[in-house]
Design brief:
About 30% of the residues lie in helices and about 25% in strands. With about 210 residues, the chain is of the alpha+beta class. α4 (about 170-200) crosses α5 (about 200-205).
Length: about 210
Amino acid sequence: MTMPKGHHYGRTQTRAYTGEYHRINANVFKPLLTTPLGSYSINSEYLSDNHRKLVLKENENGVRYVTFTINKTPHQIALKLDNSSASNKLYITCPYCQKQRQHLYAIKHAYACRQCIGLHYASQSERPQERLMRRIRKLRKELWGFDWPEVNNMFEQIAYWPKPKWMRWKTFEQKRNNIILLEKKYWPMAITQMKTTFGDRFMAEKSN
C-alpha cells in the first residue's frame, strides 16, 4: 500500500514534527472492546468527519477492528489487548506497517504511525540549552505548579521561592537544589548562544 500524502506534501520542509498532527491514543478505543458491533464516532473537535466516524467489526478469530473510510478508502485498525500485562494495555495497529502502536496520527487522508509518516519529536531538533531549559521548566512546574507566577521565566531565580505546604523540607530542598544546579549549568550555555545571536549589542546591553 502506498503511503498517502500528508498536508505537508509538496512543501520544502526538512522535518515534519509530531506537534503538527492530531494524535489519537489507543485508550480512546478501549470501550469498543465490550460494546456492540456497529457505527461509532470519536468525540474530538480537532478531527474531520471522516477521521471521527468508524465502524466496529470483529473477524473470525474474535479480534475486533475499526474501519475509517477516509477519501473513499477504508483504513482498518485492529484492537489488540495485551493480556500479559497487569494493566491490560491496548494496542492499535498502524494500517500501513501493521505494527502495534500506542498512538496514531491523523494526516490528510489517513491514520498512520509516527515511523510511517516520518515524524520527528521537537526535542530531536533542540539545542542542548533548549533541552535543558525545557527540563528546568518541567521540574519547576512539578514543584510549584503550572500556574505559579514566572514559572517559565528563566530570568527569575528560584532560590527564594517558597516551599509548597504539603512537602517536607528535606524533600523540597533536594528538589530545589537540583533545579538550581541545572540553572547554573544552563546560563553559561544560554549566554554563549546570546552572544552568537546578538553579538556586540548583547554585550552592551548586559554591561548597562
